[in-house]
Amino acid sequence: MGDHELNPERAKKTEERSRRNFIAIITAVVFGVTAAAMGLFNLIFMRPRVTYGSPAKVRVGRPDSYSPGSQLELPENRIVVRRQGDKFAAISTVCTHLGCTVNASDIGFACPCHGSVYDVRGDVMGGPAPKSLSWFRVSLAPNGELEVDKNQVVDPDTYLEVKV
Amino acid sequence: MSVDKVKLPADADAGKGGLIGTLKAMPKRVYHSVFRFRPLPKTHMERSQAVAANFFLHIHSAKTTERALKFRTTLGLGLISLYLFIILVVSGVFLMFYYVPSPDAAYDRMLDLRGAVFFGTFLRNLHRWSAHAMVAVVFAHMVRVFLTGAHKAPREFNWVVGTALALMTLLLSFTGYLLPWDQLAYWAIVVGTAIAGYAPVIGEDLRFILLGDYTVGGEALLRFYVLHVVVLPTVLTLGIGLHFWRIRKDGGLARPDTDEE
User: Fold this and answer.
1) What are chain B's domains?
2) A99–B217: do the CB atoms touch at under 8 Å?
3) Nearest to A48 among B190, B193, B212 (CB)
4) Fewer Cβ in 10 A, N or C end of chain A?
5) pLDDT, tens digit, for every residue of A16-29?
6) Shortest Cα distance from A54 to chain B (angstroms)?
7) Distance, C-alpha A95 to centroid of its chain
8) pLDDT tens by residue, A38-79
C-alpha cells in the first residue's frame, strides 16, 4: 500500500492487473460452471426416463394351468413359476454373479456361464455367485391370472395361496 | 521461406500469346496448382519444402534419424495400428450400408452380409479380424514403447494419450462385439455390463446409462451402435492426431542420449 502512495504510476499498473485478474477469474468461473452444467445435462440426457425393455410386471397364466408340485421356466421373463399344493411363488433366474440366465437342474439351478450352483430355494451352493436368487411377489390379477412383479423382491419361501 | 517463392515452370508460360497461350498453359497451371513441385526437388531446401507443402507428407519431419528408419526400432507397430484403424473405418463404413441396429433386424442383417451381399463375408471378416489384430498390435506397441523407454520425459504426456487410445480401442472392440446380436454377443455384453455394475457407488447408474435400460435390449444395441460408429471413432481419430503431432513436437522417435543427431 505504501508503495502505491509513493509511486502513482505503479499503483495504476497494479490496479489494472488486479482488474484483469478479476475479469479472468470471473470468465473462468462462468465457463467452468457452464461446462459443468452441460456435462450434467448430458448425463441426465443419457439417462432415459422411459425404458422400452420387458415390463417388470408379467402375467404368467391361470393358476389351474400349473399342476401341483411343478415348476415352469419362463426364459423370456427370466423367472420360474413354482406351484406347491395350492401355493405359488416366482423365483428369478438371473444369476447374481454376472446376469446370465440360470437353468433349472436336478438340485435346483445351475448357471451355464461361470458354474454357479443354487439349491431349489435359490440359495448359493457353489460357484462365484455372491447372493441367492431373488423371490418375487406373486399376486392374482383381476382377470384371474397370476401376476409376478419383478420390482418387488420378497423373502424366500413367500408363497401366494390360491383356491384353484 | 515460403513455398510460393519457388519458380514454377508454368509461371513462365502464363500471360504469353493471349487467349490461345493461356488455354495452352491451362493443363500445366491446373497440374501445378495441385502439385507444387515439378521437376523433382534437387536441393535439401527444396526437398524439405516439398515435404512441408504436401498434405500427406507433412506428417513427417523434414529430417529424421537413421535409427528411426530402421524397422527394428519400432517394429512398425504404431503404424500398423494406424493402418488397421484405417481398414476398420473403411470396412466399417461399408458394413453400415447393410446393417440395421435393431433387435428385430440386426442378426438377420448380419446373416445377409454373409449370404446376400457381394464380398460381404470378406468385408465382415476383414472388419472382425482387423479389430482383433488392432487390440493385439496396440498392446504390442505399448510394450515396445515401454521397453525402449519411450514413455520417459519429454514423452510422458504422449504415453498418457497412448493409454487413452488403447482404452478407446478396447471400448470400440467391446461396443462392436454386441452388434451381430447373436447369443455370444448378447451374453458377452450382459456379463460385461454386469461387471460395470459392480463399480462402487456409481456402478448401477453407470450400467443403466450404458444400456439405456435395466436389461440388454434394443436401447443397448442402439447406444452401442452410436458409440461404435460415431462417438468412439471420432474421439480416437482426434487422439491419433494428437498422438502423432506430439511425436513430432517431442523430437521424433525416442533414441538413446548416446545417439548422434
Assistant:
1) 3-53 (no CATH), 66-249 (1.20.810.10)
2) no
3) B212
4) N
5) 788 899 999 999 99
6) 8
7) 14
8) 999 999 999 999 888 778 899 999 998 999 888 899 988 899
